[in-house]
Amino acid sequence: MAQVKGITSESLERSYRNLTPSQQGFTEDLQASNVILPIIDLTSSAEGSSVGENLQTALSTNTTVTNVTAGPTTIVNNTGFWRLIVNLTGDTSAGSIIEIANLDIYDGTTATKIWRVDRSSAGGDSSFITGQFVVFIDSGNSLRGTVATSNVMNVTASQIADINGTLVNPAGFTPQ
Predict the structure, then answer these.
(1) Residues in Cβ contact with 62 at an 8 Å cutoff, skipping those fewer than 6 apart
(2) With contact defined as beta carbons under 8 Å apart, do 153 and 145 qualify?
(3) Which residue segment(s) compose the domain that 14 sits in?
């Protein structure tokens, strides 16, 4: 005989409310049964994403390119996950190791470096460095770039997911 028991788990109830916004205000406790009920989900979301990762991270009109030529320059100040493509052209003229570029996450007080380039040169050495990675910007934080004199860093940034991890498609794209 099937037995039905009430579930009093705030975390399960919160998950249920988040996944079914139309049920906000539903006041009954969740219940469990010892009867196995097969559930077949025929929606497209059950098949997985119809958009491959390489398509979802495509550059589009919502992509920004920031040219960093001096002290701290804000690149991203919106929360979420961001795909970055960094191109750095460096021209050092010092004879010792110097930091010529960095990216940091800034919380308004502290700058935490997440990428840094050092060069040692006797002078006039030009170089080109490129990199791609994904960064997470939390609430109240921003991504900044800094370069030394005679250096230029271009940072291409595209948001690929919001702060909750919900994927953000390229501008103008709606999956079928």
Answers:
(1) 158, 159, 170, 171
(2) yes
(3) 4-42
